[in-house]
Amino acid sequence: MNTHEVLFNLIKRMMNRNLEFIPEMDGSMYVTAEQAYKEAKTLDNPTYIEPIKQLIEKYSSNSTKDKDIRRRAYYLLEQFAVNTGSNEIFDYFADRLAVESDKDLLADCLLLYFYSHSYLPLLEKLLLLLENQRSQVRNMVIKLLGAYPREEVEDILMRKLKQAHNSSEISHLLVSLGRIRSTKMRELLDSFFHHEKAEVRSSAVTAARMLGGQNFLHQYKEALKDRSREVKLTALYAILEHGDESVIDVVIERLKVIIKSKRKIEPVTAKDSELVIILQFLLKFKGERKVAAIVEWIQEKKWENLFVNEREWIETHWI
Asked: Where are the beta strands (DSSP E) in the chain?
């Protein structure tokens, strides 16, 4: 087979959806596709680049088959970039932004690859998609804009924030403005702490955490009372990152709520436990009487409500 045939055969095997029974696993797997993806991860032959690009050009329609082929071809090129450290592929992807019309391939392939590999295309190429009618494309562009210098994108993101009505888009804008340390966002931020959608309130806390740190301790404390667990957890992380002894009482109250009864979902490790995360913060104030008292209360009154890995962590770090 010539190079084009070899690559097209690889792509077809990556697309193979036939299940094969594996006796030793007593189950079925996409064996052919899995093996093809393993081969794709080793791709580093530079002579393959142009043939793959030609496949993308050849299968350029928005038929399901053509889009599936392009998706795998983009993946092959990404793996080549990963294995060789070459930015040539990402430059090609940047050029494809003006050509690729499928929303899923734009968002889930090209833009996602930029974001995953910290590659920033020329800003004007990215901005072509900021008003795209597909929300998933706009949101990926907004996420990427959060990595550009503030002076280049702050006004763009602020203008977009003032126009936005979609909660997901607002959330992405808040986080990106936080990432660039936007000074112009401060005047608007407070209103988003009280937005009707939890994802926006959570993103407002995240933006504040990146933007002002301790300057927003009051907002973090208020968010810790939010009805949404997502908002509460985001606020807790902000408090634990930027808080001082003034937040000990608030943190202890949150800890009491967590273990007032047995929980259903066990953290994978102690480090994933909200309880342990709080106790790690309180370790800095181990000498405080109320801190020592809460740990003693946990041991005496709530020990049975803890998971094994949480008990082990406390025994290692506190007892």
From this structure: 20-22, 27-29
Least confident of 7-21, 65-79, 177-191: 7-21
Q: Which two tokens stand for residue 56?
A: 């993308």
CA nearest to 177, candidates 152, 158, 149: 158
**What is d(CA 226, CA 232) in angstroms, rounded to the nearest whole number?**
6
% of the chain with per-residue pLDDT over 70: 96
Hey, which residues does 28 pair with through a beta bridge?
21
Residue 311 CA: distances (Å) to CA of 8, 289, 308: 55, 21, 5
pLDDT at 184: 92
Domains for the chain: give ranges and CATH numbers: 146-243 (1.25.10.10), 247-319 (no CATH)
Q: What is the pLDDT of residues 34-53, one digit of tens each?
A: 999 999 999 999 999 999 99
Question: CA 81 to CA 74: how far, in whole Å?
Answer: 11
Bridge-based pairing of strands 20-22 and 27-29 is antiparallel
